[in-house]
Specification:
The chain is mainly beta. It has one domain. 7% of the residues lie in helices and 28% in strands. The strands form two sheets. Strands 3-4-5-6 form a four-stranded antiparallel sheet, with helices on one face. The longest helix has 7 residues. The termini are far apart.
C-alpha cells in the first residue's frame, strides 16, 4: 500500500530560529512569526527526512490570491515551497515577495 503524499500531524513546536511557540493545526510546517521551517519531511507530514536543517524562507509569489513561500534548507540545500497560512506574519511575506527565485 502506498503512503499518502500529505499526512496530517498535529504537533506544536518552538521555532528554532526565533523562539516563537507555535500551536500546530495539523498541517503547520513553519513558524507564522518569522516564516522559517525545519527540514523534517520527505513528503509533507511523514517526518522521514534525516537532515533536520533550518529552512530559510527565500521568496514568495502570489498564486490564485494566495501566497506561496519558497524555502531552501541551510544545511543540505533542498528547495521546497508551501502555501502561506492565514496567521502568517504578512510583513515577513512582503519582505521576501520580490526576492529573485531560482526555479
Amino acid at each position: 500500500m502506498q503512503e499518502k503524499k500529505f499526512q496530517k500531524k498535529i504537533e506544536s513546536f518552538v521555532c528554532q530560529k526565533c523562539g516563537n511557540k507555535v500551536n500546530g493545526q495539523g498541517y503547520t510546517d513553519h513558524c507564522p512569526e518569522c516564516l522559517w521551517s525545519k527540514h523534517v519531511d520527505i513528503n509533507p507530514g511523514d517526518r522521514k527526512s534525516e537532515c533536520f536543517g533550518l529552512m530559510e524562507p527565500i521568496g514568495a509569489k502570489v498564486k490564485k490570491d494566495k501566497y506561496i513561500i519558497y524555502y531552501s534548507c541551510t544545511k543540505c540545500g533542498y528547495n521546497h515551497r508551501v502555501k502561506s497560512a492565514p496567521d502568517d506574519n504578512f510583513e515577513k511575506i512582503v519582505q521576501i515577495i520580490n526576492k529573485p527565485l531560482k526555479e
